[in-house]
Design a protein that fits this description.
This protein is an alpha/beta fold. Helices cover about 45% and strands about 10% of the residues. A five-stranded mixed β-sheet has the order 1-7-6-2-3. It has a two-stranded antiparallel ribbon with strand order 4-5. Helix 1 links the parallel strand 2 and strand 3.
């Protein structure tokens, strides 16, 4: 299946009926800093619209580094182990993204840990099933980047899930088993079939795809293309 890329001619091919719900799928990973920034930019673009409540963000799983160890390590250790280079270069890149995030009002700690995120994605799949996926993901990711939460601690992750209304006993059951593993793998495969090569990757109404962390203004333009507030010239 192929998706349209950002395309200004989308209106000519038909758009959403005025006021109809629009599903926005966001492939993402917990520890990805550009996913963190991109998610907030997308939400701001939605919030600026008078019909913001018609847009539903659905979080989709994409584990960036399936080979990451389960034992947490520093960001610089994780990057240099996977990609080479040196710790100072990693920290320089982190400081650059930190500056971008902070200018947009987002907390960004340089003391975060890194580890395998697959168990987190399995809980995300459970949260999606319960209608709390976006709330769960945002709560954990925002606190993680603020340096307030270690999501690789099963007890901490379970408590965080409980704060958004997920049943703690069920979350513990998922964490100690293999439930939702195939659902997380399926999300990854589906994203790749749609053209995903990295995250964030946003798909609007299964018609327009936007790779990378776009600006708020670009997200606004895509929302207008998919669900126009204004009537195109010549339309009735």
């Amino acid at each position: 299946m192929s998706l349209l890329r950002i395309d200004t001619s989308i209106r000519a091919r038909g758009s959403q009926s005025r006021g109809a719900p629009v599903v926005i799928e966001l492939w993402t990973d917990l520890g990805c800093p550009w996913c963190y920034v991109g998610k907030h930019r997308l939400q701001r673009a939605i919030d600026r619209r008078p019909d913001a409540d018609r847009f539903q963000i659905k979080l989709r799983s994409f584990e960036l580094n399936p080979d990451a160890p389960r034992e947490p390590e520093s960001i610089e250790s994780a990057f240099t182990r996977s990609h080479g280079g040196n710790a100072e270069a990693v920290l320089s890149a982190e400081r650059r993204i930190q500056g971008i995030a902070q200018r947009e009002g987002l907390a960004f700690s340089l003391d975060r840990l890194n580890a395998n995120t697959f168990d987190f994605h399995r809980i995300l799949q459970h949260a999606n099933e319960q209608g709390r996926g976006l709330e769960f993901f945002s709560n954990v990711q925002d606190r993680f980047f603020a340096g307030e939460l270690n999501p690789f601690d099963p007890n901490a992750l379970t408590r965080a899930a409980g704060t958004v209304g997920l049943a703690v006993d069920r979350v513990l059951e998922v964490l100690t088993g293999q439930d939702y593993a195939e659902a997380a793998h399926s999300d990854r495969r589906e994203g790749q079939e749609l053209g995903l090569s990295g995250v964030p990757f946003v798909v609007f109404d299964r018609r327009v795809a936007a790779p990378g962390a776009q600006s708020v203004e670009v997200y606004e333009q895509i929302l207008e293309q998919v669900a126009p507030l204004t009537t195109p010239m010549g339309a009735r």
